[in-house]
């Protein structure tokens, strides 16, 4: 007999978190493992941010805050969003949550009715479809293959809309591909959304990590009409190397923000007071570390893309942002080794973990089974070793 709800049975565990946990456990056992799975920056949180958190503890800033976040942090979010994206918001447009992930979860709970459809371009971040299912909605996956740069066209969006469509997700720069939409591409997508009156979730968590002079555009900045339909999410985890602090936020329509805040008030209450204090410093304080980290990521990206493309049977697009590459390794499907056969991205990932002792994430988890995701949010030394091992293991097949 199972006591579990149908709702929880309809979703899968997060593959990214499962692989990150497995890699950490193998390392703790003393196994010489190279982790290219985790989507978390390897840098320490900058000192100025840590100091504010310690001061907050010493000053007794350890009680509940307003459910939707402190006034100071909302102001800091408004300031940063204006500076980086050129969009004006007011405090009633902002919700602070326990990570960007929590903001997205709250949004889906607030706007999705049973049977509502949510358009998700694939490759997609692992948690979008499952969070839609948890809200009773139907994920509508739109295949945006490598040949189209992993990006959805306005035509594809138009053809996927039905009278049940509630929302479309735009994630630029993208996890897992690193692909980012140009302003023109976003404008074409926005036009379709406006015409059909559907909401847009713009996940901009990687907007400060862009390369080769590319600057991320927020779809909400395109016009007042688009802004009215767009919920923008971001957070401090990636930009300031603060994934464990759990602070993310959403900006958009005040009624939707209020509804999300109600859900938060009946579930988690406020995000951690100390993390909120530190996040004010992250968003308002010295931004030098952000550019330094992005410059380091760019060097690693250049290296990893070149190395991967030099491996026979591997093809890797050069991303504009984030800290992932998403090479196609399907040339190795059908090959056998002593322990089994490579049939898909999951078995390839198992092979690389067991034989090469390198952790990567199978593309199947992101809706693109011919690929695997490698995170370069780790040292150059680890990246070199990891790619050497992958190259050797693939050659042995
Ligand atoms: N977003 C990161 C990743 O994709 C963190 C793990 C998660 O929440 O999925 O690896």
In words, what does this structure look like?
The chain has helices at residues 6-9, 15-28, 47-58, 71-85, 100-111, 127-134, 154-160, 183-196, 224-229, 254-265, 273-284, 288-309, 345-356, 380-395, and strands at 34-35, 94-97, 117-122, 138-143, 165-171, 199-203, 230-235, 248-251, 324-325, 336-337, 340-341, 358-359, 361-362, 372-375. The radius of gyration is 21 Å and the shape is globular. By secondary structure, it is of the alpha/beta class. It contains 14 helices and 14 strands. Helix 4 (71-85) runs parallel beside helix 11, helix 7 packs parallel to helix 8 (183-196) and helix 13 packs across helix 14 (380-395). The structure holds glutamic acid. Glutamic acid binds at residues 14, 16-17, 38-39, 101, 126-127, 175.
Order of helices and strands: HHEHHEHEHEHEHEHEEHHHEEEHEEEH
Overall mean pLDDT stands at 97
Taking the sheet with the most strands, its summary is:
7 strands, mixed
Number of helices: 14
Strand order of the largest sheet: 2-8-7-6-5-3-4
Percent of residues in beta strands?
5-15%
* Overall 3D form: globular
Q: Provide the structure class.
A: alpha/beta
Number of individual domains? 2
List the ligand species.
Answer: glutamic acid
Task: Provide tags for this entry.
397 residues, 14 helices, seven-stranded mixed beta sheet, binds glutamic acid, alpha/beta, Aspartate Aminotransferase, domain 2, Aspartate Aminotransferase, domain 1, three-stranded antiparallel beta sheet
Short description:
This protein is of the alpha/beta class and 397 residues long. It has helices spanning 6-9, 15-28, 47-58, 71-85, 100-111, 127-134, 154-160, 183-196, 224-229, 254-265, 273-284, 288-309, 345-356, 380-395, and strands at residues 34-35, 94-97, 117-122, 138-143, 165-171, 199-203, 230-235, 248-251, 324-325, 336-337, 340-341, 358-359, 361-362, 372-375.
